[in-house]
C-alpha cells in the first residue's frame, strides 16, 4: 500500500541555545540533500468507471522541491539565530520566511548558572499541513523535555554546549587566519560540511540530532536514547495514513489523536505487520499489557471479547488500540464472521502492474485458488455474506479464505457494508424524516443485492390477503426504477418472484397501487390494509389502546396521530413481540446498524434480526458502510 510521503517536508534539524551571557546562538544544524528522485508510477489502466489513484501526494516539480532548500541555505548562522530567538518559554514556535517554516518548542532552564533556554527546531517546507507542523512541534517538545531532564540530572546540556562551542570557536579562529582564508577560498561549503562532521564525532547530542533527521526521513519515527539514559520514541502519525484514504489529512490526524472517542466495543483490531515483528520491535520496558494484547489478537475478536480473553479492562484495551493505530501498527475494522458483507472498496488500486498486485502474488502464490488480485476481488463484486463466499468455493479452505480477507482488509481493498433500518408507516409524510433518509442512504448499487437465506425482503413480503396503499409523495416509478421515500430499487433486477407493474399517478394525494402480473389483489408494500381502515373493532381496538401508552413512552417526540397509526400497524402482533419491538424502535431512524443496536441493548445479532423480521412490513433497510472516520484510516 502506498502512503503519503511527508519526509519531503523536512529540510533540516537545528539546535539553538541561549546562554546567560550571550544571545540566542545556533549551536548545530544538520541537513541532507536528497538526490534520489522518485518517479511516480504510471497509471496503466483507465476506464470510464475507474478511479485513478494518485501515486504522489502534492508532487512538486524538481525545481519547486529544491526551492525551499535553496532558501534555507541562503540564511547564515546569525540569521538563523535571530529567526529562532525565543519570545516566550514553554510554547510552540512557528516562524515562516518565504517558502520555509521553522517549528519547535522553546524550553527554559531554571536555576542554571550558564544556560538560559534552548530548543530543537525542525525546518520544513511552508506548504506543510498544519497537523504536520503540530506533530513536529510536539516532537520537539518531547525531545527537549528529555534533554532538560538530563541537564538537571547530569549537567548534560552544559557539557554538550561546551564541546560544540569549542568546535565553533576553533572554526572561527581558522577562518580568521589569512593563510587558511586564501587556501580555502571558494571551498566554504566543504569547510562547513567538515565542521558539522567534526561536531557529530565529538558530541553525542549532535550525533543524536543527526539520527533524528535520518530516522524521520526513513520511517517517520524516532527511537533514541538521550545521554544513554532516557528513551524517547515519537512518530509522525501521518505516515500511517494510506494514500487512498478518503479523509482530509488534517482531519485524519485529529481522528488519530483522539481515536479513543471513536472506538466501539464491537470493533476489532487488525495488525498491519507480523505480530512477532511487532513484539520484537517493542522496547525492553514496554507494557506487559500491550504484549498480552498482541499475543491474543484475532481478526474474529471484538474489543469486548479481547477484554474478556485477556482480563484487561475495556478502557485500557481502547488505550492500547489507539496507541497501535497512532503508530500505524494496526487498523480498526469489524471482526470477521460469516454474516459480514464485503464489497470492493471504491478507491482500491486494482491495476495489474501495481505494487499491491505484485505483493498479492508473492503472498498467496501457493495458498489461494485465485492467483491474481483481480480474481480475488472479483468475488466481492456483489454484496453477499462472507458465508456465501465460502459455500460457493467448496474447494478452498476456510482458513485460506480467512487469510485472504484479512490481507484485503489490511490493504484497504474491501469495504464492509451494514444494514441500517427505518421505521416507515403508510402515508408517512414527515419531511424531516424523508430528507434524513435521502441524505443517509447510498446511491443505488451497481448490482442487485442478494437476499440471505434466512432474512426478509428489503421491502417486506406481502400475502394475497393484504391490501397495500402508498401516496405519490412516497413512491415514484420511472422506467424500471422504483423509488420509495428516496430509496431506489431496480425492478428489472429484483429478486422478487413476480415482476411488478404500476398504475398511473392521478394526483399529488392519490393512492398509487402496485400489482402483480398474475392478477393478484393490490398489495401495500409496508402494512396490511386493516391499518388504513377507518373502523377498528373488537380485540384490535383493545390492543391499540393497550399499546398506546407503551408507544408514547418509546417515542415521546412523535405526535399522537403517529402513535395511533403505529398502534394500528402492530395490533396483530403478540404482546412479547411488541414489547421487544418497542425496545429497539428508537434505533429505527437509519442511523444505527445491526451491530450497534445489539451492542446498545446488550442483545445478539440474531435477537435483533428476529425482532425486526417480525415487523418487516413496516421496517425497511438500507445497505451501506459505517461512516465512522476511524474505519477509513
From TrEMBL:
What GO cellular component term, any one, is given?
A: GATOR1 complex
Instruction: Provide the protein's localization.
Output: Lysosome
Pfam families found in the cross-reference section: HTH_NPRL3, NPR3
Ranges where the GATOR1 complex protein NPRL3 C-terminal HTH domain occurs: 572-620
Q: Has UniProt tagged this entry with the keyword tRNA processing?
A: no
Alphabetical keyword list = Lysosome, Signal
Q: Which GO terms describe its biological process?
A: cellular response to amino acid starvation; negative regulation of TORC1 signaling; positive regulation of autophagy; TORC1 signaling
State the PANTHER family in the record.
Answer: CGTHBA PROTEIN -14 GENE PROTEIN (PTHR13153), GATOR COMPLEX PROTEIN NPRL3 (PTHR13153:SF5)
What does the record give as the function of this protein?
As a component of the GATOR1 complex functions as an inhibitor of the amino acid-sensing branch of the TORC1 pathway.
Q: Which family does it belong to?
A: Belongs to the NPR3 family.
Can you name this protein?
Answer: GATOR complex protein NPRL3
Name the source organism.
Adineta steineri
Amino acid at each position: 500500500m502506498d502512503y503519503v510521503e511527508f519526509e519531503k517536508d523536512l529540510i533540516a534539524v537545528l539546535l539553538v541555545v541561549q546562554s546567560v551571557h550571550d544571545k540566542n546562538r545556533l549551536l548545530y544544524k544538520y541537513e541532507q540533500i536528497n538526490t534520489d528522485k522518485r518517479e511516480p508510477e504510471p497509471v496503466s489502466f483507465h476506464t470510464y468507471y475507474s478511479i485513478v489513484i494518485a501515486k504522489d501526494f502534492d508532487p512538486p516539480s524538481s525545481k519547486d522541491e529544491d526551492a525551499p532548500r535553496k532558501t534555507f541555505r541562503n540564511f547564515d548562522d546569525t540569521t538563523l539565530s535571530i529567526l529562532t530567538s525565543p519570545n516566550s518559554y514553554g510554547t510552540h514556535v512557528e516562524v515562516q520566511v518565504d517558502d520555509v517554516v521553522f517549528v519547535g518548542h522553546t524550553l527554559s532552564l531554571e536555576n542554571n548558572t550558564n544556560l538560559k533556554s534552548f530548543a530543537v527546531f525542525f525546518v520544513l517546507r511552508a506548504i506543510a499541513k498544519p497537523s504536520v507542523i503540530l506533530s513536529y512541534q510536539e516532537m520537539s517538545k518531547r525531545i527537549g523535555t528529555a534533554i532538560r531532564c538530563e541537564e538537571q540530572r547530569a549537567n548534560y546540556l552544559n557539557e554538550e554546549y561546551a564541546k560544540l562551542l569549542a568546535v565553533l570557536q576553533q572554526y572561527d579562529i581558522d577562518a580568521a587566519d589569512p593563510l587558511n582564508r586564501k587556501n580555502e577560498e571558494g571551498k566554504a561549503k566543504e569547510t562547513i560540511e567538515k565542521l558539522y562532521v567534526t561536531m557529530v564525532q565529538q558530541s553525542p547530542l549532535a550525533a543524536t540530532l543527526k539520527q533524528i533527521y535520518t530516522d524521520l526521513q526513513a520511517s517517520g519515527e524516532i527511537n533514541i536514547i538521550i545521554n544513554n539514559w532516557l528513551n524517547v520514541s515519537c512518530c509522525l502519525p501521518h505516515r500511517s495514513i494510506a494514500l487512498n484514504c478518503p479523509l482530509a489529512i488534517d482531519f485524519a490526524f485529529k481522528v488519530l489523536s483522539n481515536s479513543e472517542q471513536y472506538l466501539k466495543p464491537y470493533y476489532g483490531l487488525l495488525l498491519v505487520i507480523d505480530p512477532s515483528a511487532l513484539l520484537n520491535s517493542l522496547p525492553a520496558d514496554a507494557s506487559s499489557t500491550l504484549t498480552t494484547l498482541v499475543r491474543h489478537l484475532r481478526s474474529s475478536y471484538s474489543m469486548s471479547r479481547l477484554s474478556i480473553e485477556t482480563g484487561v479492562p475495556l478502557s485500557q484495551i481502547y488505550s492500547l488500540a489507539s496507541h497501535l493505530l497512532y503508530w500505524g501498527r494496526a487498523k480498526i475494522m469489524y471482526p470477521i464472521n460469516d454474516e459480514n458483507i464485503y464489497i470492493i472498496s471504491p478507491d482500491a488500486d486494482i491495476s495489474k502492474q501495481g505494487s499491491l498486485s505484485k505483493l498479492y502474488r508473492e503472498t498467496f502464490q501457493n495458498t489461494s485458488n485465485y492467483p491474481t488480485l483481480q480474481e480475488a476481488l472479483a468475488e466481492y463484486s456483489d454484496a453477499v455474506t462472507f458465508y456465501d463466499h465460502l459455500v460457493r468455493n467448496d474447494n478452498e479452505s476456510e482458513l485460506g479464505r480467512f487469510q485472504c480477507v484479512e490481507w484485503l482488509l489490511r490493504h484497504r481493498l474491501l469495504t464492509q457494508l451494514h444494514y441500517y433500518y427505518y421505521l416507515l408507516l403508510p402515508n408517512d409524510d414527515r419531511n424531516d424524516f424523508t430528507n434524513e433518509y435521502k441524505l443517509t442512504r447510498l446511491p443505488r448499487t451497481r448490482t442487485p443485492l442478494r437476499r440471505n437465506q434466512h432474512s426478509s425482503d428489503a421491502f417486506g413480503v406481502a400475502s394475497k390477503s393484504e391490501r397495500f396503499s402508498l401516496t405519490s409523495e412516497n413512491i415514484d416509478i420511472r422506467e424500471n426504477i422504483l423509488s420509495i421515500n428516496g430509496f431506489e430499487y431496480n425492478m428489472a433486477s429484483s429478486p422478487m418472484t413476480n415482476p411488478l407493474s404500476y398504475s398511473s399517478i392521478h394526483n399529488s394525494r392519490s393512492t398509487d397501487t402496485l400489482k402483480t402480473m398474475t392478477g393478484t389483489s393490490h398489495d401495500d408494500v409496508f402494512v396490511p390494509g386493516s391499518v388504513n381502515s377507518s373502523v377498528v373493532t373488537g380485540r384490535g381496538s383493545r390492543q391499540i389502546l393497550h399499546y398506546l401508552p407503551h408507544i408514547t413512552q418509546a417515542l415521546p417526540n412523535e405526535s399522537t396521530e403517529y402513535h395511533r397509526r403505529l398502534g394500528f400497524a402492530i395490533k396483530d402482533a403478540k404482546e412479547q413481540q411488541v414489547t421487544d419491538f418497542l425496545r429497539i424502535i428508537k434505533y429505527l431512524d437509519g442511523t444505527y446498524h445491526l451491530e450497534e443496536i445489539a451492542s446498545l441493548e446488550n442483545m445478539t445479532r440474531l435477537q435483533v434480526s428476529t425482532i425486526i423480521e417480525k415487523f418487516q412490513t413496516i421496517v425497511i433497510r438500507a445497505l451501506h458502510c459505517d461512516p465512522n472516520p476511524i474505519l477509513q484510516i
